[in-house]
Design a protein that fits this description.
P-loop_NTPase, alpha/beta, 39% helix, AAA_dom, binds magnesium ion, ParA family protein, binds adenosine-5'-triphosphate, 7 strands, seven-stranded mixed β-sheet
Length: 264
Amino acid sequence: MSKIIAVAIEKGGVGKTTTALNIGAGLHLLKKSVLLVDLDQQGHLSRWLGYQPDGKPTVSELIYQEVSGIRSNDDSLFIRHSDREDIDYIPANKMLGGIYAVLGNDGQSNTVLDRIFHRDFFSQYDYILFDCPTAVDNLLVSNALKCSDKLLLPVQAEKFAYDCIPQMLQRYMAIKQTQDVKPYLAGMLVTMYSRQTKMSNEVFAALQESYGSLVFSEPVPMLQEARNSTDDDNALCGSLVHRKSSRVGQAYLAAAKRIAGDKK
Ligand SMILES: Nc1ncnc2c1ncn2[C@@H]1O[C@H](COP(=O)(O)OP(=O)(O)OP(=O)(O)O)[C@@H](O)[C@H]1O
Ligand SMILES: [Mg+2]
């Protein structure tokens, strides 16, 4: 059985995609088989993985086929392999913007991803990670939360990001129909942390006070190397976990180790 993790938080530009990529690459480095799923029509994750439009079906068609009931029996048609990261993925592109009307047509519109990713084919992966779009009330994100075993929250080290956590957890608890969210959390990973700034330290301390051990002990520093890694015109583009000299990469690798060690 795969463990399915949604990387999500209702705030944009906080490092969701960087986190999905580096945690996926970190788990791969730990010898786990990983499938990354791009659920954002911006397609940033796909681009970092080296995706070039190839005329083959993307995550949009995967969803469309499940809702329409007219589907190929071969889920491998949707899988690409990133040579750069040596990881399988399912790409997204701007067509995904039209998927909300499709999802809305399903009798159980919250369970479409749940039905897809619990098919036998996907059980070959140890981990399936969803890179979610930023959204407040978004059917695709609800689907990802419903389907996932765990939620990984990248929390930018600034106050607005911290403030949006309670609402996000409430929503997740409603979807999971539970009063106790803890078993469903992979954790909160502080991103874009600057040791020198008061704001970063205050947010990290407040998070630890409110959420204790759910907070990863090693925050991801705010560094230019992370920006370079997401610039697909740059030769340094790609995950950072392989680079021993990368502080961002080592923080992500530490987080991946904790996730891999979580047996629940
Ligand atoms: N630790 C970091 N230090 C510096 N820059 C970072 C760090 N992590 C991410 N970034 C940069 O911040 C920007 C936003 O990151 P990313 O795309 O991962 O966020 P996101 O939450 O997925 O954004 P969106 O809401 O658009 O999906 C990118 O340019 C990325 O390179
Ligand atoms: Mg993103």
